[in-house]
Amino acid sequence: MAYAIDLFCGAGGCSEGLIQAGFDILFSSDISPMVEVTYKHRHEQLGLIQGENTWFERSDIRDLTGEQIWNHIKELKWFNDGSRELPSDIDLIIGGPSCQGFSRAGRRDKSDPRNMLFGEYVRVISQIKPRYIVLENVEGFMDMQFNGYVGINGTKYPDGSVTPFLLRSELNEIGYHTLEPKILNAADFGVPQRRRRAIFIGYRDGEKIPNYPTPTHEGKHISLEEAIGDLIRDPSIKSTISESKYQKDSKKGRTPTKSGKPISVSKDLTCTELSTVTDVVSERFSLFNQGESGTNLRKRVKEQGINLTGKKALIQLCSEKLGLDSKDVIKLFKNGNPSDDQIDVLLTKKNIRQRWDPSQPSATIVSIADDYISPWEPRTFSVREMARCQSFDDSFEFLGKRTTGGLLRRTEVPQYTQVGNAVPPLLAKAIVSEIMKCL
To answer: Distance between CA atoms of 364 and 186, rounded to whole angstroms?
Structure first.
């Protein structure tokens, strides 16, 4: 038996990887009530029953103690009806403290209180004393600096100390050795997504030294077409694409239930709803070439021109905004060298949109999928397509609101965010399988 705890568990990406690698998850926790609904539902699907063989606690980690965790584990029916013997040790704690303050994708904020959650993670580790630990975070975690950081035992660190140094020093103080932190690309481990993450692996003094996983798909990454080509809506396009092994595995399932068999889904997929867009937006999407970014599209329009024939909604919009008739609008953009203001009317000032390349893995999945365009159709992606790019099984159902906006993004964790925040299950499996080898 190998027992794990999953902290900051989110919708359950790490948990999927843990189960695939053979771990039993005795305890898990996250702060979000929207995440709780998805996480508990998935565990019920798999036969992980609250209070019987697992416990999920919705909690701020700052309010969570090792004593509370152990008490929940001791109360599990498994260990009170003679089914199993209560373990003296937890084999692994895994977690990814909230990373918004570390992220390079947005404005980094050293004062963001979420930056300090890795210290709370160390505190819980010191109280549980597992044999092995894993921490996952964004690349920006590797060079974030702190001023006035005080450690778990009162150690005052020099201003400018970077997160990896603080983390390794703190773990060393409580009896853990750590491997040199490493950046892993999920695409190298069978995930159809270019997602680079900082990984820390630690082990208690006296335990076998683990290794980082060896890439299985380096140089032979799974493409977007292999990942989601079967989810294209246009039958004339879909019929030209063969079903891939990755698609078959997603439908068959990779995560076993307690009965030992994964949940197979061959039809009636959930989370396939598409966002409704206006004709103008749909026609804008159609202007992008496969693999082209908004910046490159602007450059192409300016230098080479673009043919708007048949783009009725866009032509009408440009006619109204620029005071030109339809023929002059087509001529203006077809001949090249329109002004920046004229291009803004055609494309808006937004340059972060990108149409993905079907022959490559997807870009990094984030919590807002509004700016990703399908290579085959002028639309954004469904939650299911995003989940495929993260390597979730098709049987994994994301619950709650599909998306949200405005200030609600600060507090709500809808389906798209649940997917974007998750650790790809296949990456998690690769990492924790190395721990399993030591056990």
So the answer is: 10
Tokens of 2: 């190998």
- 405-424 in b/e form (b: 16+ CB < 10 A) is eeeeeeebbbbbbbbbbbbb
Query: How far, in Å, are 230, 236, 397 from residue 269 at the CA level?
Result: 12, 21, 9
Residue 344 CB burial class (10 angstroms; 0-12, 13-18, ≥19): middle
SS3 4: strand
Residue matched to tokens 């329109």: 338
CA distance 142 to 229: 35
**Using one digit for the tens of pLDDT, what is the confidence trace for 180-192?**
999 999 999 999 9
Q: Confirm whether pTM is higher than 0.90.
A: yes
Give the pLDDT of residue 104. Answer: 45
Q: Give pLDDT, residue 218.
A: 92
d(CA 198, CA 166): 15
- Cα–Cα distances (Å) from 47 to 50, 100, 206, 253, 343, in that order, read 9, 33, 34, 15, 55
Q: Which residue intervals of 263-382 are DSSP H helices?
A: 279-287, 294-303, 312-322, 326-334, 340-347
Write b or e for each residue in 135-156: b if 16 or more Cβ atoms lie within 10 A of its Cβ, otherwise e. bbbbebbbebebeebeeeeeee
Q: Which residues of the chain have pLDDT under 50?
A: 101-108, 111-114
One-letter identity of residue 248: K
- Longest CA–CA span in the chain (Å) reads 82
